[in-house]
Amino acid sequence: MFRMSLMNQLTEERAEFTSSDIKRNIHIFQITAIDITVLLVPVIVLLWQEAGLHFHEMIFLQGLFVLPLLLLEVPSGSIADYWSRKGSLTIFHGFFGLAMLLYAFGNTFLAFAMAEIVAGIGLAFATGSDTALIYDSLLIQKQKDVDRLFGQIMSQRMTITFVGAAIGAILGGYIATFTLIRLPIFFAFLGHILQAILVYFGYREPPCMKAKSPKIAIGNALNGLFRNNELKLIIIFSLTGIVFGKIGFWAVQHRFVDDFFITPLQMGFILSGFNIVAATSSMLIRSKIGIFSYAYSFFFILVIDMSYLWALIAMPNLFGVFIISLSTQVTRGIRTPLMQSYLQQKIASNVRATFSSIISFTGSLVYIALTFVFEIFAFSRDSTLAFCGLCMILVIFGYLALQLNITSSKANPVLQS
Questions:
Q1: Which of 39, 81, 196, 290 could form a Cys-Cys staple with 172, CB 3.0–4.6 A?
Q2: Which of 2-6, 25-29, 301-305, 396-400 has the lowest mean pLDDT?
Q3: Nearest 5°: CA angle at 158, between 172 and 247?
Q4: CATH class of the structural domain 12-202+214-408
Q5: What is the pLDDT of residue 210?
Q6: pLDDT tens for each residue of 138-179
Q7: Closest CA to 280 of 318, 357, 334, 319
Q8: What predicted TM-score, i.e. pTM, was given to this entire model?
Q9: CA 371 to CA 261: how far, in whole Å?
Q10: SS (HEC) of the chain
Q11: So what's the pLDDT on residue 411?
C-alpha cells in the first residue's frame, strides 16, 4: 500500500515537472560547466615554487586533495541520491570557494594543504550529482533516445568547459602577469560563490525514485558492480583519467616551468591551446555518440594516455612536449561524453550519484596510495612518470582481459533499481 501511494505521488510530481523545468535545468547545467577554478591553473605551479615546494610535494598536495574524496565521496553520493542533488552541488561550490580564499592568502605547504583538503571535501559532494539530476530530468520526457540526447548534452557541456578553460587560462595568466599573481584566485572565489547561488535557486529537482537510505544506495551500487562486468570496465577506464591523467597534467606543467622557464602569461596561452583542442574533439564527438564502439574507443584512449606518460620523459624540446600534449587533449575531450553516455544506461536512478562516487572513490584510493609512495621515496618527475607508465601497461592488459570476458559472455546483468 505504501509503495503504491509513493508511486502515485511520484506520477503526480512528474506531471508537474514541465518541459520548461527540464530546459532550465539543462541551461544551468551548461552554465556551471564554466570552471572558474581554471583562473588559478597558470599560476599555481609558480605559487608552489615560490613557497619552496619540490615536485613530490606538489603531487603530495594533490594526494591531500584526494584524501577527503576517499573518506567522503561514496557517503556523499548516497546522500545526494537520498537527500538532494541540488543541495550537494551547492555545498560543493561553497566549499570550493572557501578553498580558493585559503589559497589566495596562503604561502606555505600547510596553508596549501588546508586549501586542498577543503576543496576535496567540496568536490566529494559534487561527483555524479549534476549528471544524475540532468539524466533524471530527461527521463521525465520518456524519450526513446534519452541516452543519445544525454550524450549530446554531455558533449556540449564538455565543449563549454574546455572553451571556458581556454579563455580562463589566458585571463588568469594575463591578470597574474600585469596585476597581482594572486588576483585570479580571488576571482575564482567569487565565481564559485555566484555558482552556488545559481545552483541553489535555479535548479529544480526532477521527481525520481530516491534511495531508501544512504546505506541501501551504497549496497545496491556495490552489488551491481560485482555482478556486472561492463561496470567493472568503466571503473578500469576511469582510473586512467582520474589517476594518471592528473599526474600527467601536473608533470607537463612542471616541465614547462622548470625546464623551459615558461611565464604565467605563456602558460595561459599554452593551456588555452590545450583546451581549444579538447573543446574541438568534444564538439566533434557529439554527433557520434552511440555510433562508435565503446570498447574500441576506450582502448584507443588508454593507449594514447600510456604513450603520453612515456613521451613526457623522452621528448627533449618545448615544441615536442607541446605537440605530444595535444594528443591527450583529443582524448580528454571525448572521454567524459563517451563514458557518461555508456554509464548512465547501465545504472538505475536511485544509485546514479552513488555509483559515480564509487568510481571516483576507486580513483582517489589509487591516487592517494601512489602519492604516498612518491612522497616516501621522494620520486623525481621522470621516476614518477616511468612508474605510472608501467602501471598503465598493466591497466591496459587488465582492460583487454575483462573485455574478452565480456565478449565471450552471453549476457551481463545491468544494475537495476
A1: 39
A2: 2-6
A3: 65
A4: mainly alpha
A5: 62
A6: 888 666 678 778 888 988 998 898 888 889 888 988 898 888
A7: 334
A8: 0.70
A9: 25
A10: CHHHHHHHHHHHHHHHCCHHHHHHHHHHHHHCCCCHHHHHHHHHHHHHHHCCCCHHHHHHHHHHHHHHHHHHHHHHHHHHHHCCHHHHHHHHHHHHHHHHHHHHHCCCHHHHHHHHHHHHHHHHCCCCHHHHHHHHHHHCCCCCCHHHHHHHHHHHHHHHHHHHHHHHHHHHHHHHHHCCCCHHHHHHHHHHHHHHHHHHHHCCCCCCCCCCCHHHHHHHHHHHHHHCHHHHHHHHHHHHHHHHHHHHHHHHHHHHHHHHCCCHHHHHHHHHHHHHHHHHHHHHHHHHCCCCCHHHHHHHHHHHHHHHHHHHHHCCCHHHHHHHHHHHHHHHHHHHHHHHHHHHHHCCHHHHHHHHHHHHHHHHHHHHHHHHHHHHCCCCHHHHHHHHHHHHHHHHHHHHHHHHHHHHCCCCCCCCC
A11: 47
Residue 208: the pLDDT is: 66
Between the CA of residue 145 and those of 154, 284, 290, what are the distances in Å? 14, 19, 10
Gap between the Cα atoms of 154 and 12, Å rounded: 29
Q: Dihedral of CA 245/251/257/261: which sign?
A: negative
Grid coordinates standing for 47?
A: 605559487
Query: Grid coordinates representing 383?
Result: 621516476
| Lookup: cell for 35 | 570552471
Residue 316: DSSP 8-state: -
d(CA 400, CA 190): 45
At 9 the pLDDT is: 47
Give the domain ranges of the chain.
Answer: 12-202+214-408
